[in-house]
Design a protein that fits this description.
about 120 residues; three-stranded antiparallel sheet; 2 helices; alpha+beta
Amino acid sequence: MRSTRFAVSAAVLGALALPLVAAPTATAAVPTAHPTAFAEHGHRPCDRPGPWVIGTKAVTMRSKATTKSTAVGILYRGQSFTVHKTSGNWHHITNKTTKVKGWVSGTYVYRDVRMCLSY
């Protein structure tokens, strides 16, 4: 009984491990431009900060850079917006959908971080 259980367990483990062994290895795409070509422009594409994103479901847009000021709109995750200037931890933005301008807290709005891989 015990040897049968061991044989079945070994067979199941072998079947589970088979896709891992047989899977092809992943390869990263290699950029076509030589690394020194990026140095001519002063940076690599991934060194630049990414687009602005909302880090929560929604952010209240305010008339001034303070939580006590009047709300002028709401910016939802996924909506496009432009940042015009920054004052402390507040960003003056324009909602591209509604064209409403206002201030949002930098606690909820930030630049997307891109990762560079050495090549």
